[in-house]
Amino acid sequence: MNDVSSSPGRTFNWRHIVGLLAFFAVVAGGVYVVASEQGGDAVIASVGSVELTEDELFAIVESNDPLVDNESFDLIAASEVLSNWMIVEAVVQELDDLGAPLTDDTVAEAEASLIERGIDVATAPGAFTLRSESVVRGLRLYAEAGATFEIVAPEFLCASHVLVETEEEALAALLRAEAGEEFAALAIELSIDPSALSSGGNLGCNPSELFVPEFTAGARSVDGSGLVGPVRTDFGFHIIDVRSIGPLTTETHPEMSEAVIATAVESAEGEARTEAVGEVFNQVVFDAQVRIAVDGFLDPRYGMWDPTTGIVAPDGVTG
């Protein structure tokens, strides 16, 4: 693959190409109304050796409105079709080069999904939507197979706190806690946190990233467990009773059940996998954009390929 670490155009992502499918599902219903006088078998776009003619474009962007001339269409709709067509065909070529061509099973699954959604894949718009969805499915399968990631146990913090308005109040609360007064009782008496009356200042156990950075940094200054403060945040001044902080394991956080920890670790693993799959997906799409820039053609009457957005921009198009 290309080295893309400094490439300014790497803004296209899988959500964009998946989002285009929603547009093509509408295209498959036919809804367009304005204006061009083009037509014929002239090639208007190509990626590598794969070509698209004007007649093929017209068939995809056909209108079901009987008041519209058969040769008229919306240039904005045409640019959407061309954007998808160029990306899809470039991705197909990327997958071929990567040894991961589309399979009959992938196409069959996409076809079944579209038919279930009421899209007639026998029409030109429907067949085009089938091509698009098949490629997205094939690319996702490749990304899922090729994604690598490291599972890192998320950091959790189990703590209680007393929140007061001034540093002097916080220091006084800390001295009382260090002298052995019950922390929950101090929170109920002193804390301006509205939940303290019912919780005794107990914040439970949560991913440390969910707390404001100053709070987490203060908790990390404790060696395993203990009192720390005053810690200033936008909410005020905190005295923190850290019960445990560190990787999400039963050894580090004995108050958390094995079931809760297993669920949290599974969630973190899923997030890591999703991110890794997205990176592979995005890389292939980005390389497809490069392929279009190097080996693509677009009739200027229909706009320009914009590598920074990964779409055909119809600005300046003439009918």
List keywords for this structure.
319 residues; alpha+beta; Chitinase A, domain 3; four-stranded antiparallel sheet; three-stranded antiparallel sheet; 17% strand; elongated; disordered N terminus
What does this structure look like?
- The chain has 319 residues and is of the alpha+beta class.
- It has two domains: 175 residues, no CATH class; 93 residues, Chitinase A, domain 3.
- Helix content is 47%, strand content 17%.
- It is built from ten helices and nine strands.
- It has a four-stranded antiparallel sheet with strand order 4-3-6-5. Strands 2-1-7 form a three-stranded antiparallel sheet.
- Strand 5 and strand 6 form a beta hairpin.
- Helix 3 crosses helix 5 and helix 3 crosses helix 10.
- The longest helix has 38 residues.
Write the layout of secondary structure elements.
Blueprint: H1 14-27, E1 43-47, E2 50-53, H2 54-60, H3 75-97, H4 104-116, H5 124-146, E3 155-164, H6 167-178, H7 183-190, H8 196-199, E4 202-207, H9 213-220, E5 226-233, E6 236-247, H10 258-295, E7 296-298, E8 304-306, E9 311-313
Antiparallel strand pairs: 1-2, 1-7, 3-4, 3-6, 5-6, 8-9
Helix pairs in contact: 1-3, 1-5, 3-5, 3-10, 4-5, 5-10
What's this model, at a glance?
The protein has 319 residues and is α+β, with helices and mostly antiparallel strands. The chain has helices at 14-27, 54-60, 75-97, 104-116, 124-146, 167-178, 183-190, 196-199, 213-220, 258-295, and strands at residues 43-47, 50-53, 155-164, 202-207, 226-233, 236-247, 296-298, 304-306, 311-313.
